[in-house]
Structure formats: C-alpha cells, structure tokens
Amino acid sequence: MNIKKNIIIFSWFNKIQSRLPFISDKARTMATTHNLGFPRIGAKRQLKFALEAYWRGDFNEADLQQAAALRRQESWQFQHHLDWQTVGDFSLYDHVLDCSLMLGNLPPRFRRNSGVTPLDNYFRVARGRSTDETPPAVAAEMTKWFDTNYHYIVPEFLRDTQFRLHPDTLLSQLAEAGADGHQVKPVILGPVTYLWLGKNKDGGNRLDLLERLLPVYDELLTRLAEAGAEWVQIDEPILVTELPAAWQHALRMTYYQLQACPVKLLLTTYFGQLRENLQLACELPVAGLHIDACRHRDEVEQVIDWLPTHKSLSLGIIDGRNIWKSDLHDLLDWLEPIHARLKARLWLAPSCSLLHLPVDLESETELDAEIGAWLSFARQKLIELQIIATALNQGREAVAQALSDNVESISARQQSQRAHRPAVHQRLAGITQSMAQRQSPYGSRRQRQRESLQLPLFPTTTIGSFPQTTQIRQCRRDYRNGRITADAYRAAMQQEIAYCIRQQETIGLDVLAHGEAERNDMVEYFGEQLNGFAFTRHGWVQSYGSRCVKPPIIYGDIERPNSITLDWIGYAQSLTEKPVKGMLTGPVTMLNWSFVRDDQPRANTCLQLALALRDEVLELEQAGIRIIQIDEAALREGLPLRRSEWHAYLDWAVQAFRITANGVQDATQIHTHMCYSAFNDIIEAIASMDADVITIETSRSDMELLDVFEAFDYPNEIGPGVYDIHTPNIPGTQSILKLMQQAMKRIPPERLWINPDCGLKTRQWREVIPALENMLQAARILREKSQLHEKSSNMEATSESLG
Fold this sequence. Notes:
Layout: H1 3-19, E1 32-33, H2 46-56, H3 61-78, E2 85-87, H4 95-102, H5 118-127, E3 142-144, E4 151-153, E5 156-157, H6 168-179, E6 184-189, H7 191-197, E7 199-200, H8 210-226, E8 231-235, H9 245-258, E9 264-268, H10 278-283, E10 288-292, H11 298-306, E11 312-318, H12 328-342, E12 346-350, H13 369-372, H14 378-394, H15 400-415, H16 422-429, H17 442-453, H18 470-480, H19 486-507, H20 524-527, E13 531-534, E14 541-544, E15 547-549, E16 553-559, H21 566-574, E17 582-585, H22 587-592, E18 595-596, H23 602-622, E19 627-631, H24 646-661, E20 669-674, H25 683-689, E21 693-696, H26 708-711, E22 717-720, H27 733-744, H28 765-802
Parallel strand pairs: 1-12, 2-6, 5-7, 6-8, 8-9, 9-10, 10-11, 11-12, 16-18, 17-19, 19-20, 20-21, 21-22
Antiparallel strand pairs: 3-4, 13-16, 14-15
Helix pairs in contact: 2-3, 8-9, 12-14, 16-23, 18-19, 23-24, 24-25, 27-28
C-alpha cells in the first residue's frame, strides 16, 4: 500500500475540515453529506470476539456493552467530517431483530423466560434456546437481506400480534452520540418494509397488522424528536422492488399518517432503481428522499423533475456494495449541473449502508501495492464522499491534489496488463452447448450411481466442513507466518483429516467428507489458488451475528494453474472404503461472495470461474472420486430484485454451474448445496441445474421450504437439512424424525437424504458428534419402518394373489 500518499490525503482532509467553519455564508448553496450506515464489527473484528467471549461466559454483560460502545465511538469518529452522523445502524446481532425488539414483537416462544436477562433473550431469538433448558426453542428463521450476503432474523407475525414500543436502546445511543458533539440522524427500518420482510405464522395477511403498527412508529418518531432528533432516516428499500398494488397503497397510507410527526423524515431506498415506484416515492409526504444513484444515473433527472421543490434529494453516489475507487472527475462532471440546480437541497451519501464493505483499507499493509491503489473500503468511501462535496461547495481547486491522485489510480487500473489474459478469453469463446450437458438423463444416471455407490435408503452425509478448532486455526497461522514448514503443515492437516474420517466412520455416516481443515473459507481458499484474485488480511464483512467473511477480490481474468483439492480429498479417500465427497465451491457462489471487477459483465467473469472449476471436477473424477459436491450457496442472492430481470441472470448462472459439473460420467454423482433460500419462484431453474442431489437449509422453516416440491415434480434427490448448525442446540432424534416425516409428505423416501443444514465449521466437536449420532439414529429408525412397511405390503400382495 502507498501509505505515504494516504497520509498526504488525510492531512489535506484535515486542512479542508478546518476551513469549513469559515465558509458558512455559502450554506444556502452547500450540498449536505451524510451516511446511511457503517460496519459494526470493527476493523479487526473486535465485536465478533466480544460477542463470542460473552457467549462462552468469558465476558459479562458490562464487558460486552463496553466493547459495543467502543465500536460505536470508532464508527462516529470515522464519520466526524460528515454533516450528519448516523445513529441506530449499530447492532449486537442484527438490525431487523433490533427493530422487532424495539416494536415489542419477539416470537411468543421467547416472551416468557423468567430468570433470563433481556440481552440473553435477544440472543436466544437469534441462536435458539439450548436443549438443556425447558422447553427448548428453535431460533427464529434467518434469510438473505435483499440481494446481499448479509442475513437478517425474519420477524414473525400472528393474526393477533400486538406491538409495543421499547425505544430505550436507540434513545440511549442517540444521547451517547449527542454527548460527543455529533450532529446525529437516527436510522430506523420503515414499517412497510418491516412487514414485507416478515412471515405470518398462522396464515394471516401481514398488511392487516399495519393499522396496529403505525401508532407505535408515531410514538417512536415523537420520542426521537423529544430527544433532539431533527432528521430521521427511515428505510423503505422495498421501493426498488416490483410491489403489488396493496403494498404501494400501504406506503401511501403509512406516510400520510406519519407526516404530522415532529421530525423531518428522510425516506431512504437502495439496491436499485425506483422505476414504476418513482412517482409514488416522490409524492410521499416526507422531507427528503434518498435514492441509489450508482448504477442508474438516468433515473436521477426524472426524480429531480418529479420531486417537489421543498424536499431534499439525497443521491447515493458512492458505491456501498463494491470496493473499487470512484472516478471522482466523472462524478463531478455529472453532479455539478445537478448541484447548480438543487443547491442546498442536494444531499450526498453512499448508495446504501457501508455494512457490506470492510472497514478500513489502511489496515491492509500486506496487500499488493498496485491493486491496493485501486481500492476503497468503508472509511475511504466516506473520504471520497467528502472530496466530492468539497469540490461542489468550494470548487475543484480546493481538492486539486486529491482529484489528481484519483485520476492516477483510475488510469493505472484501466491500463494494467495484470487484469487481461488472452488465453482465458480464447477459451471462453470456445464454450459449446455440449459442455453443459450430461451424457444421459437423470433416470439413467440414477441407476448407474446406485450400482456404483450401494447406499442405503435415507443415506446420511454432512455438507462438508467440520469444526475449525483453535488448533487448526493456529496451525494455519503458524504456516502463513513461516513458523512451521510446509511438510509440518501438511502432516498436521492430514492428522486432522484422519481424525475427521474416523469420527464419521464411528458415527456410521454413509457418505463422508474430509472436513476442510486446510480451508480458511469456502471462497477464499479456492480464489487463493486461481489467477485473477487478490486477498486482504482484514477485509472482513459481517454475514450474520458474529459470523464474518473475507470476500476475495476478483480484479482480472481467471484461470487455474494447478490442482486445488485433489491431494486432500485423495488422502481422505485412501483412509476409508466409504465414498468421500470431493468438495468445491461453485462458480456462481464464488462470484456472488467476492468483490467482482466492474470492467466486464458479471456473466463473463462467472463463466471464467466455471471453466477453471470444470478442470478441477474432471481431475477429481479421474482420480476415482465418485461423489463431487459443487456448492451454490449463493445462487439465489444473485437474483436481481426485480423479477423481470431474473431470467437473464438465471440463464448464465445455471449455464455456469452446468459447465462446471457436466463433463463427468453418468456414474459420478454430482451434489450441490444451497443456503437459506425460498425455492418456489426459481424451482425450474434449480431443476435445470440437473444436479443428482441437492441439499438445502430447511430446519428453521419446519420444512416449509419443501412445499414447492408438492406442486413441482422435482425428479432428482433432495437432502433437507434437519440440524440447524447456526445455533449451539443439539437436535434430538425425535425432532429430526419429525422434520423428516414432514419431508416425506412432499418427497418420496427413496429420493431423500438426511444431512445438516450447512457446514459444521463454526460448531464444536462436542456439539457435532451427538447431533450426528442422533441424525444417524433417526435414519436407522426410518429405514426400519420402511422395511417393515415394505414387508407388510409384500405380505398383503402375496395374500391377495393366493386369494
């Protein structure tokens, strides 16, 4: 990293800030800066470690709250140069769960917990209540936040749900920020989006609850005003989706009812265009409107024309979803006429919350200097924002050096030869339709695979990863830092693989996994061994709760120079007669869980990944691996928010998976795994992937996700998750049987597998072993019942024939 240049930029930045008080006479024309949200976890994942210390019992509540306060202070410090700083974006687990708590809407099974602190009860909603408590309670469902890799806790509703305001946490944070002299803008989730995100558990209509919900929001806004809030950011991101008429009407009713509240409302949308909701958004009676202006500038002029002149317009001009530097000259060329027209009505912000970005590029002292010069993390995004605002308010000459540095970085990236590999483009041009086809239809393949694998009814397996123990992580750190040799590292990982295989054989699983001890992350591990990827040390992004991911950076053309997994999988297979799955991350998931280059279509980058992974699949098959799992955990999250755009995405996404998988022989069984997803509306696309076995996360939804398989004749095999690995709870045999009985109502037994919801990386062996033992016991019971049923049916048939 060019540390010297960054120090110069920060020094310039402080000088600019010191001048701002002396230009207050320009306030009538000055653009206003603000932020929609900041990462919560800390630049070094401090909140993650504090949460886990609390859950282990090493921290008490005061320790955790002190750690949380430090993260908030750090966030506000990073935003101190903005005109408005955000309060309410911080959360100990999830902002949607925080909203449910604030509205008094926790699931009934968590409302009566005598002797449990409110904080522990909050975490129980997210993580479940352990089985040593009576009665145990299943954690609330978790799913993707729009089209991101962040997961939120799904609100639960009943027909008779009542709401009651509990604003103390938000009000205390407002006071906390105000005490430090910040000019603050609280952020809350809008009532209509809150209902949209939830699930009615007894068949009622969520919109029927709006009449009960709005008085609570009215009270909340009044309380915020009394606490000194002038503006409140109220997020309604559903305005960028294709809304049914009833939901559009709900938005109208909501904001006409809330317009009398004693605060100015900044109605906030993000992640896409307004399109048919544009007029609605402009006409709602609020003081200001924020739109995502990063990807679709053409809509901005129309919004300006429609928006009444008494309203402020906030433009999301800095990309909050990707890590590339903004082209500041291009932005200024576009914004200067808009600023001249709107003057002080113009607000500037990132496109969305910066929750989806790493915190600070300055932490990346080991990143390749050339690539690092192209990047911008959350803190740097806010500096870009202020450079733009200063240029608009004071003229480009006031930020001449910063703009010159930006031109240099943008030009260097555009001209770099590292991003372009002609051989990759030649291979991409040579893709044929036959590369995406299996040799035979599933019915024929199924017979060949059964003859080869000889698996029992209700075969048992896991999703792939096993506990990443402290010992494993320390060994990986030691190897990375040069404290142990490559041979010592290899021996240690083989020892962990052998232990994992022994445990699975002792339990009695039918299809084994090597455990992935050598892997730091399911995407990063593969990216490290492909050309075209770069990696950070501290580029962590929150996925849910304390779970963080470190997305790789795809900066150039992708190819596979060497084998990636064969040595480890081959070693595991040599230890057992049972089949060991080859474990790969699919091309769509690698794309959707990376920061992707923005100088070519995403489809092209995905197909490059598919060709590289296809080579790995064929190498595993040639080495005798009979089952290969290609995880597409993130297939759905890549869906555009508008259904009208789904077809184009699914076409190239499914093609990429098929190119990866479909070069194998009929006897080789292809598995795929998908994380929390609703399948009803994309089931045809999933079927067209033509995987022999699909495993899916269903335990938190009580198998409701399988309802689609009643209406759609899905021909292949399915493994519905029966063990929720996102909580410390150990499922009992009876609870697994209950879930499988629900599954058997929808799917024939001969096509069902039994497996956990997801990988076991985040769990501990003391949880995993009894959970898998219970899972296997459930499989044995189901097999015995099936055999008895078959025997009874055969006897009846024989009796009828003799009669």
